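Dear support,

I submitted the protein below through the web form. The confirmation email said the job was done, but the results page showed an empty box. After a refresh the structure appeared. I'm attaching both so you can tell me whether what I see now is the final result or a partial one.
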Amino acid sequence: MTIPIALTIAGSDSSGGAGIQADLKTFAAFGVYGASVITALTAQNTTGVSAIHQVPSDFVAAQLDAVFADLDVKAVKLGMVGHGAAIDAIVAALARWPVGRVVVDPVMVATSGDRLLAPDAIDALRQRLIPHARIITPNLPEAAALLDEPVASSATDIESQGRRLLALGCGAVLIKGGHGNGAESIDYLISKDRVTALPAPRIATENTHGTGCSLSSAITAGLAKGHDLETAVRNAKTWISAAIAAADRLDVGRGHGPIHHFHHW
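What the results page shows now:
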């Protein structure tokens, strides 16, 4: 039996709760072999980010070529890309090594509030990277930032922003509702011809570090296993909701602790 392979291209979280580390844990939880390309090193823990070291773009390219030349990558997740030169290297690699299943999580700000994407890289993300995506997975503030608009406050506004994000060239948009209000956290899967609401009970916990990274990686794992997009998104939503619900069983750090990636074990 050949194990499906997924690749994460993202930043490293030294505390292990988000970024590359969360992605690899998620792939493992879904029975997928995980490879990684590191775009940035962060000095961070559950209370915040104290330093970021950007990986030079030529070394990002070297990692990408090493992985793609040897491994049969079925799906790719893009998280923290850090700076414009890294985006250029990634786009060039995707041209050299085409992968049809690309998930872009437009990481801009950490759970702690620390900025993770250089302001001058936002245009490169919009114009060069997002058109490669089968799906992008912004939360409400990220969707607003990509469009230079206020944060959506209603289902109608969310759908409208999703339509404008589709116009950037991606295949579908999942706008996540974790930053919203109300008893339910509702994600909206928006494609050219359909809008699907995916509700789940809102869970009262401070331990949500790595939620966005892990959700996008769970979708990537499903795509790597050959699932259609909606199935991959629904399975990922179910899994992430359970991982958040189980987060308080862990006791990691003094700030926003991680979700429980291996809750079902």
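Response: this is the final, complete result; the empty box was a page-load delay. The mean pLDDT is 93.
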